[in-house]
Structures are given as C-alpha cells and as structure tokens.
Amino acid sequence: MSNLAAQLQELQTEAASAIASVHDLAALEQERVAYLGKKGKLSQILRGMGKLSAEERPQIGAIANEVKTTIQTDLEARRDRLEQAQIAAQLAAETLDVTMPGVARPLGRIHPLNSIIDRVIEIFVGLGYTVAEGYEMESDYYNFEALNTPPEHPARDMQDTFYLPDGNLLRTHTSSVQIRHMEQNDPPLRIIAPGRVYRRDTVDATHSAVFHQVEILAIDKGLTFTDLKGTLKEFVRQMFGEELAMLFRASYFPFTEPSAEVDVQWEGKWLEVLGCGMVDPNVLKAVGYDPEIYSGFAAGLGVERFAMVLHHIDDIRRLYSSDLRFLNQF
Ligand code: DAH
To answer: Is the CB of 192 under 6 A from ligand 1?
Structure first.
C-alpha cells in the first residue's frame, strides 16, 4: 500500500482517539477543524495526491473519502453523546420536588379608596373624559385666586389651609387642576382629576387632614346646567348601580355660578355626595378663554364620603389605619 494510504489510515485512528477523549462541544469543534477543516490534517495529506500516478489517484481518492466519512461519523456520534450529557446535567440541576410544601403568598387587594377612584375614572372615561393631574403643593394663585377667590375673600374661610413657609400651600381641593389644565389646553375639554387634598381639620370620625377628591370639568360651546345634571345623573346611576333620587340644593362656591350641592337618596337618607356648578366666567377669563363663546360645568366629589357610604364605614380613620383585619374585608 502506498505511503499516502498508510498516512490516511493513521489519520483515521488518531482522529478516532482524539474525538473520544474530548469532553465538551467547544473542544469537539476544535477537533473537527483540526482534522476536516480547510487547513486541517486531511487536506494536508491530500496535497500529496498531485504526485500520484493515474491508477493510484482514484484508489487513494476512495480511501480518503472513506476516512473523511468515518471521521464525520465519529464526530457526530460524539456530539450526540455530549449534547445528551449536557441536557441530563441540566435536568439534574433543575430538578424540582413538587411534593415540597409551597411558600404561601397571600394575595394583595386594592385599597377601598383606590377602588372607588378607579371606578369613578372608569365611569367618566366611558363618558369621554381623560385624566389630568396637578400638584399637591400649590401656589395661592392656582388654589384660590384664579378660581375667583382673591385674598380676603370670605370663601377662603371655608377651607382651612396649610400654608408652607415659602408662601406656597398644600392644595385644599383638586379644583386647582382645572386652572392648570385649562392654561395648557384649548377648549373643548373634558377632564377628571383625582388626587389628595389637605385641610387643617381636627381629625375625628368624619374628618381627616388629608383626604381625596375627584374633580370633574367640561368646557365646550353651549354647555348648560342640563348637561351637568345629565352627566351627574348618569354617573350616580353607574356608581350606585341603580337610578337614585337626586336633589340639587342651591349652594355657593366662588368658582361656579350657579352652584349646587347634590344629595342622593341612599338607604332611606339624603346623602350629600358632591359640589358642582357652572364654571364662573371669571375663571374662564383667568385662563384666557372667552366666556362669550365657551361655557362649562365642574364638580368635585369626596372619595372618602363615597367609600363610607358604599361600604357602611363608621369612622373615616379606619381607611388610613392599614389594619389588615379591616382591609381584608374589601
Ligand atoms: N372644590 C370644592 C370643595 O373642595 C368642591 C367643588 C365644588 C368642586 C363645586 C367643583 C365645583 O368643581 O364646581 O369643597
């Protein structure tokens, strides 16, 4: 047998033992390149074929092909085994004992105040409103002055205010968002603004220094008190899940004219649920809207009040106490 044939046989034996001693896929790939790659050992041997005679060449070619196929087969068999071993090792490492006792993770719940706010938002979004936000720290201008409540205005006494050392204040109502939103947007608009508000009230069963309101504002051409009533009626129907008798009582707010407070008949009692009215022309002027062209209505509702009524809560302080025995009921 020619020298080349012997070299090829030797190569096959050498490759077989090299492949058998490899223990990971990267090393296996290195062996493949070393033996079968373009510059590998097989190619190097075959370079000598040019010197062969015409009869020898096909014989050696046939042996070379066989050797190549054998090495390929060895490589594949080894790759299969290594892959199987890898999967087996991974499975062993990730074994899960499904008979072990689990770790209990009690489900959290939405706080009753948040779920009321969510519900109010849902209803008004259904009526075409979008949600707007303002700031809890406000200037006198946005909380009072632009809302037609200049300094010394007696209506300021209605809302005992926390003033901050820098002259700003903690907003006493979400009505400040009306001004902020109208300053930044052109009419027509329909927004609701949920948020936290602050008053220097003595805390008792029905008062808290921090509470929540949802402000409602609609501005358009030709809006009337009838639109306000229709909107609130639909809101109350969805909120309480039934058509309730509603009482619009004349009232006073500096930023609306006329103004009203709304009571609903709930479980045999009249219950005040919100303040509302037609936006005062002075408020429209303060944000650069022309009151001859645009009109609008606004309302502000107390979230705690709704929570107390809907859930029969006797003391507002329960809503803030984070007592799980209380909160788990919702
Ligand atoms: N801001 C009022 C308050 O906190 C509630 C209110 C009344 C809001 C009438 C309004 C409104 O938008 O039109 O007492």
So the answer is: no
3-class secondary-structure state, position 94: coil
Say what the pTM is.
0.71
Give me the domain span that covers residue 157: 112-327
Same-domain pairing of 229 and 318? yes
Q: How far is CA 270 from the centre of its chain?
A: 38
Phi first, then psi: give them for residue 168, nearest 5 degrees. Answer: -75, 180
**Distance in angstroms (rounded) separating the CA atoms of residues 171 and 184:** 19
Convert the pLDDT of each residue in 61-116 to its tens digit.
889 899 999 999 999 999 999 999 999 999 888 888 889 998 999 888 899 999 99
d(CA 292, CA 289) in angstroms, rounded, equals: 9
State if residue 254 touches ligand 1 by the CB under 6 angstroms criterion: no
> 158-188, pLDDT tens digit by residue?
778 999 999 999 999 999 999 999 999 999 9
* Distance from Cα 327 to the centre of ligand 1, integer Å: 29
Question: Is the peptide bond prior to 188 cis by the omega test (within 30 degrees of 0)?
Answer: yes
Q: Verify that 26 and 171 share a domain, yes or no.
A: no
In a domain, 192, yes or no: yes
Are residue 143 and residue 224 in the same domain, yes or no?
Answer: yes
